[in-house]
Specification:
The structure is a single chain. Helices cover 37% and strands 18% of the residues. By secondary structure, it is of the alpha/beta class. The strands form five sheets. Strands 11, 14, 15, 16, 18, 19, 20, 21 and 22 form a nine-stranded mixed beta sheet that branches. Helix 10 links the parallel strand 9 (228-230) and strand 10 (250-253). It is elongated and about 90 Å long. Bound molecules: sulfopyruvate and magnesium ion. Residues 63-65, 75, 102, 104 line the site of magnesium ion.
């Protein structure tokens, strides 16, 4: 599983020491045992799992109710446990975050729980919650006095579950239904104590009252014997701060993604049915590009460039001639070769380029040029680097600006998706621009500020109308700035011709030695469309020692 590689791979630290990988179970355990209040958000399939992660949640609740409902079934074990596993596999593949699975009653007795927990381990599910009822279960909010399991029998399910976990950190939450079923506080406490003693890592104390009274009473009497998990669906108006004060460990927002999807889908279906047209709906629903983005089409395109013959067409020119001004770090090597957690800045950039299928990489070197010798690159020398600027360095590699070409500064780091987005973006010259200018620079470092014909709107439906560069410079009027160029651009074969022509003109005017790329692009924008591809964050460039520290933390 790709995502597992991401979460559970080994990661190296600043010191070069290999840290032990954090499994999803360990991540869930950390959440549940942390002194902060944690939140798990409901998801019921791969797509909703992605949306929960995108929103920022550090864990997911795979709800029995909503998984069943999304299959068109009742929350009465109508979906078999292996059908639920199939859904969980899609969910686990879709997120790197830990998932706590609603395991209902465990689908039978201790033996069914054993098989369930082994299979959940195989799928890298972080934990399971089992409730003290009988198979087949009924949703807790239906009917009164649902029969509860015998305490000892349920403790057997807990023990068997804990004995079957593959990962030591796997979290088993035992859910006490005594309050819901009307058996009272003493029974609830008696059961929670027995389940904890049987090995449950945490207790989910459930209530269907519309106020949190009995939950808070339980929490007080429980005295934090082990973490408490709650599902405030019925007492939804309780301020979250009160849960914190009551010492609750984890709140599950149990079904709100499915419920919001139901409202939205109903409204859309009704509207289209009545209108027999899409006119009113288009613009109110997520764009098709949102779907592509959520399921990671950009990654597939990058993979195609890497693996499909004939797809890896783009080449790259990296401008890395400048010496940099980082004291000791740049005393004997250029800025692009400073070490960032065991790899040079340039090596990291080259890895990002080759991840996108770009293999033909030319690096324009200047200062300490002998230090710039990495495998898999061509080098071009700008021996006048001390007297010249970026446009001159680019001109040194002008023979290589031919066909689809990426141009990058040698001191930038950006996430892979940013390059994939640039490679996909339409236009003959396209610049990647951070719309937020989110890089909080502490120094007065030069920033390539951009004025475009339109600011970033965040609306993917706008994508078809191109955003075009008007001018770029370190000194733009604040009101006209729509972002900051991150030092990454792409041109097509036609764009490459325009760039070559403009370089020739700068040369003829005697400006080539001093020109920088903002000037080159501003001049190009006066004659040709120079498109902007907006991003928001996930990049940095290295101008100062603070940037070096940030680069070490950049993933
Ligand atoms: C679920 O989400 O399936 C739950 C929580 O078990 S509840 O519906 O409140 O029982
Ligand atoms: Mg459930």
């Amino acid at each position: 599983m790709l995502e597992d590689d991401l979460t559970e791979r080994e990661s190296s630290t600043d010191t070069g020491v290999i840290e032990s990988p954090l499994t999803r179970s360990a991540a869930l355990r950390r959440e549940i045992f942390s002194s902060d209040l944690s939140f798990l958000m409901e998801a019921h399939n791969g797509l909703s799992a992605k949306i929960v992660e995108e929103a920022g949640f550090s864990g997911l609740w795979a709800s029995g109710l909503t998984i069943s409902a999304s299959l068109g079934l009742r929350d009465s074990n109508e979906a078999s446990w292996t059908q639920v596993l199939d859904v969980l596999e899609y969910m686990a593949d879709s997120t790197t975050r830990p998932i706590l699975v609603d395991g209902d009653t465990g689908y039978g007795n201790f033996n069914n729980v054993r098989r369930l927990i082994r299979k959940l381990g195989d799928l890298h599910i972080a934990g399971v919650c089992i409730e003290d009822k009988l198979f087949p279960k009924t949703n807790s909010f239906i009917g009164e006095r649902q029969p509860l399991a015998d305490i000892d029998e349920f403790c057997g399910r807990i023990k068997a579950g804990k004995d079957s976990q593959i990962d030591d950190d796997f979290v088993l939450v035992a859910r006490v239904e005594a309050l819901i079923s009307g058996f009272g506080m003493d029974e609830a406490l008696r059961r929670a104590e027995a389940y904890h003693a049987a090995g449950a890592d945490a207790i989910l104390i459930h209530s269907k009252q519309t106020n949190p009274g009995e939950i808070f009473t339980f929490a007080k009497l429980w005295q934090n014997a082990c973490p408490l998990v709650i599902v405030p669906t019925m007492y939804a108006s309780t301020p979250t701060e009160q849960f914190r004060q009551a010492g609750i460990s984890t709140v599950i927002w149990a079904n709100h993604n499915l419920r919001s999807a139901i409202s939205a889908m109903r409204e859309t279906s009704r509207r289209i049915f009545e209108d027999q047209s899409l006119r009113e709906i288009e613009g109110r629903v997520a764009g098709v590009k949102e779907i592509f983005k959520l399921v990671g089409n950009a990654e597939l395109e990058a993979a195609e460039r890497r693996y499909l013959p004939g797809k890896a067409t783009a080449r790259a020119i990296v401008l890395a001639a400048s010496a940099g001004n980082l004291g000791e770090l740049t005393r004997q090597r250029p800025k692009c070769m400073i070490d960032i957690r065991g790899q040079s800045l340039l090596q990291r950039l080259i890895t990002t380029l080759s991840n996108a299928g770009i293999r033909d990489i030319a690096v324009v070197r200047g200062a300490f040029k002998e230090a710039v010798n990495l495998k898999g690159i061509r080098t071009v020398d700008n021996d006048r680097h001390a007297q010249t600027g970026e446009a001159y360095s680019l001109a040194c590699a002008r023979d290589m600006i031919d066909g689809d070409t990426v141009i990058a500064y040698g001191d930038v780091l950006f996430r892979d998706y940013i390059l994939s987005g640039l490679l996909e973006a339409p236009g003959d010259i396209v610049l990647t621009v951070d719309a937020m200018g989110s890089k909080a620079k502490t120094s007065a470092a030069t920033r390539d500020l951009v004025a475009a014909n339109r600011p970033f709107s965040g609306d993917y439906l706008d994508d078809d109308a191109p955003v075009l560069l008007q001018s770029m410079s370190a000194t733009l009027e604040a009101g006209s700035v729509t972002g900051e160029w991150i030092g990454l651009a792409r041109c097509s074969a036609l764009g490459a011709i325009w760039i070559a022509e403009e370089i020739a003109l700068l040369e003829a005017e005697g400006l080539l030695a001093t020109a920088d790329l903002p000037l080159l692009f501003t001049r190009l924008a006066a004659k040709h469309p120079v498109a902007i591809h907006y991003i928001t964050a996930h990049w940095l460039d290295v101008d100062t020692l603070t940037d070096v520290a940030d680069a070490r933390n950049f993933t």
